[in-house]
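Quick question, first post here. What does this chain look like in 3D?
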Amino acid sequence: MDLLGLSNQLRQVVDAYTLLFYADFMSELGQRFNKEDQPKIDVERFTRLESIFETLIHKQG
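> Answer (accepted):
Ran it through. Tokens below.
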């Protein structure tokens, strides 16, 4: 975003889309989809996504 010289407003738009997709990524964790067994949740991935969410949500407030 720095290289593109985005304004604060455009940075907030990017952050909003990131939060939206965060919710989508998080909703997939532990879902079976077309598998018989429920997959094990990748704790490292969950922690990374949670950290991204916390960072972005605090920027919004």
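The radius of gyration is 15 Å.
The chain has one domain: 8-60.
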